Amino acid sequence: PCATQNELDVDAAHQLIANGVKAVAEGANMPTTIEATELFQQAGVLFAPGKAANAGGVATSGLEMAQNAARLGWKAEKVDA
């Protein structure tokens, strides 16, 4: 889910599980309620919280801030290295 906080609730979690969801990866800050997270765990659904799933985006933002502060422009190859 890439939404506001608590967007994915227990009702939505039940629907996803009933439809055979295998994994849920948060793309926002805390879009899944605690109850829905617990339900996913009980059902054996792989769950990636936003702090883990978004780590690459946070790291890249740090690189972007560094290049902006130094007034540099990095090519994608350097960022990906």
Assigned CATH architecture: 3-Layer(aba) Sandwich
Report on the biggest sheet: 2 strands, parallel
How many helix segments? 5
Helix percent band: 40-55%
Q: Which structural class fits the helix and strand makeup?
A: mainly alpha
Which stretches are low in confidence, meaning pLDDT under 50 for 5 or more residues running? none
CATH class term: Alpha Beta
Strand share of the residues?
Answer: 5-15%
Say what the CATH topology is: Rossmann fold
CATH homologous superfamily title? NAD(P)-binding Rossmann-like Domain
Query: CA-to-CA gap between the ends?
Result: 28 Å
GO biological process, one term: glutamate biosynthetic process
Protein name: NADP-specific glutamate dehydrogenase
GO molecular function, one term: glutamate dehydrogenase (NADP+) activity
GO cellular component, one term: cytosol
Give me a quick take on this structure.
The protein has 81 residues and is mostly helical.
What does this structure look like?
Helix 1 (10-18) packs parallel to helix 2 (34-42). The protein is elongated and about 50 Å long. The chain is mainly α and 81 residues long. The protein has a single domain, classed as Rossmann fold (3-Layer(aba) Sandwich). The mean pLDDT is 87. It has helices at residues 10-18, 34-42, 50-53, 55-69, 76-80; strands at 23-25, 46-48. Helices cover 52% and strands 7% of the residues. A two-stranded parallel sheet has the order 1-2. The longest helix has 15 residues, at 55-69. Helix 2 links the parallel strand 1 (23-25) and strand 2 (46-48). The protein has five helices and two strands; from the N terminus they run H-E-H-E-H-H-H. Pfam families: ELFV_dehydrog (PF00208). This is NADP-specific glutamate dehydrogenase. One of its GO terms (molecular function) is glutamate dehydrogenase (NADP+) activity.
